[in-house]
Amino acid sequence: MKIIDARVIITCPGRNFVTLKLTTDEGVTGVGDATLNGRELAVASYLTDHVCPLLLGRDASRIEDTWQFLYKGGYWRRGPVTMTAIAAVDTALWDIKGKMAGLPVYQLLGGRSRDGVTVYGHANGETVPEVLDEVARFLDLGYRAVRVQVGIQGIGSIYGVSPDTAHRESGYVPTAESSDWSTARYLHQIPALFEAVRERFGFDFALLHDAHHRLTPIEAARLGRRVEEYQLFWLEDLVPAELQEGFRIIRQHTTTPLAVGEVFNSIWDCQQLITEQLIDFIRADVVHAGGITHLRRIFQLADLYHVRSGSHGANDLSPVCLAAALHLDISIPNFGIQEYMRHSAETDEVFPHAYSFADGYLHPGEVPGLGVDIDEELAARYPYQRAYLPINRLVDGTVHSW
Q: How far apart are CA 352 and CA 336, in angstroms?
């Protein structure tokens, strides 16, 4: 079964998505997500100019061999562009293999380890009362886990707070605009949010929060200790993870569970964090961490060290990535939780899919392969639009982690 066509499809039904579509000589197609938010065309070029020509004539059934061929054969290893491109190929090949076998991909990964995939929604608002109303809405929808983010007094805009609470996080703009940040104000105000949520809704659901890499280790340690009484499911991305030893400082001061990894590209980015048990959840995702093949390897390492999965699932990843994540989530023994930001109606139309939400769980469906496709005619109606993530600055103008 040979690959005879490899095409990159770029579409923007509200957000930019890059999709790789492979076709075999038996007429079977497979799709893989290749979206790198804010740098989409870099991956599209990497695939079109360098990878796709290498795929023609290759045996579509040799998934592991193709992964190693693209990773080791390129010499320049790792990095978000390379690993996202490899992920797209890998995911598309799993889609093809599932279709050829007549089975959903999770069956090829060992079958179900659970009945459904627990997901968390995003409740945010400019004020605490607005967030509480959003939490109530998610709980009414059946969610068993909710992430909360709130505006900070004196800060004009902040990550995770957006007027479109159903579909989008703040930060997807036509130019590289700046947003503001004050760690002192954040640390002073954020515990009150958790207190208000627990006081109104109790402890019968999982409560999560994302600091988005904005703290130092000792600031993160202070926050983790301060909020222990609210029993958070996790604090996410407290510090930039380039210096993994920083998590040791946090670990020494708090028992609040820690999650990190949405910007990780490989198993080597999180090896120390996992093997030294410095985190509780690894948040790497299918599209940025080399596809199903490599992310599964990360989760297998994590399982040995009591670290659970918590894959990134923002809506800047297409339904192709979410479908692939669900097949992996439902099969692994150390699943923790899956982020779930609902896509817009336009995106769902461009990417018809078999997965579904019910009673706080996502279900991958029983369609052979990934159970997701791309409507190319409809996708063509939404041309690419250049967009960036914001630049974050402290109140004195210093560039800060976003």
A: 26
